[in-house]
Amino acid sequence: MKNLDIVAFIKNNKSYFEDYITRSTYNSNAIEGSTLSYADTYAIVFKDDSFKVSAKPREIYEAINHKYALNFVIDNLQNEADERFIIEIAKIINKNINDISGFRNVDVFIRGAEHIPPKKEVVQNKMLYFIDNYNNAKHTSIFEKIAYNHIEFEKIHPFADGNGRTGRLIINYELLKHNIAPSIIPVEDRSKYFEFLKTSNVENFSIYLEDLSKQEAERLKKFLL
Fold first, then answer.
1. Mean pLDDT along residues 181-189
2. Is 3 annotated as a binding residue?
3. For a Cys staple, 212 with which of 33, 147, 171, 183, CB 3.0–4.6 Å?
4. Kind and range of the H or E element at 126?
């Protein structure tokens, strides 16, 4: 795997591209409550007219938007994770759902979470600090960096909506940027994932993400045959 250009493989291997995009989109949206099935998701994002989909307009947009946001990430790995880059991901995620032009100017709450995100007045400064730390702070490993920053990002909840999806895309931006197989958090692990966020357990979350990446690397090998 070390000699494989993973990003080029994703772009050029149609079977794996469709597999990765569909699984990433299905699981990330399902974590947020989408009722679309895996088959629904594939049919929507790859316009498979042979499969009839009956779904809410919002869920259809969520699937389409996630695909395009993931494509945006894959096509912009050379860019630094700066304010413009992060906002653009959130804008794509929210297209035709919410009007996102920047960091939130409203107070938000996270359903089912004890943590209350910071007030709208401090979000801009919180994110400026987050971005500086993201790009400059030293970490013991790439997975520790990703776990720490994902937890911090979700604590800030910088957008009116789409924070989870945006944050999980940033996870894979960082992995793909370093030619590491992506981590797709399965909806079956939703409770475990939320517990990592709730407890800010960077160490265990980083181990979990690394394990997911290793699983994805093994899956990817099957498409090399």
1. 98
2. no
3. 183
4. helix 120-136
- Give how far Cα 82 sits from Cα of 71, 86, 129, 145, 189, Å: 18, 6, 11, 16, 29
Taking Cα atoms as reference points, which of 6, 2, 37 lies closest to residue 22? 37
Q: How many residues does the chain have?
A: 225
pTM greater than 0.85: yes
53: pLDDT strictly greater than 80: no
Residue 168 annotated as part of some ligand binding site: yes
Burial bucket for residue 27 (CB in 10 Å: 0-12, 13-18, 19+): buried
**Which residues are designated catalytic?**
157
pLDDT tens-digit map of 139-148:
999 999 999 9
50 band by pLDDT with thresholds 50, 70 and 90: low
Domain residue extents for the chain: 6-222
Q: Is 164 one of the annotated binding-site residues? A: yes
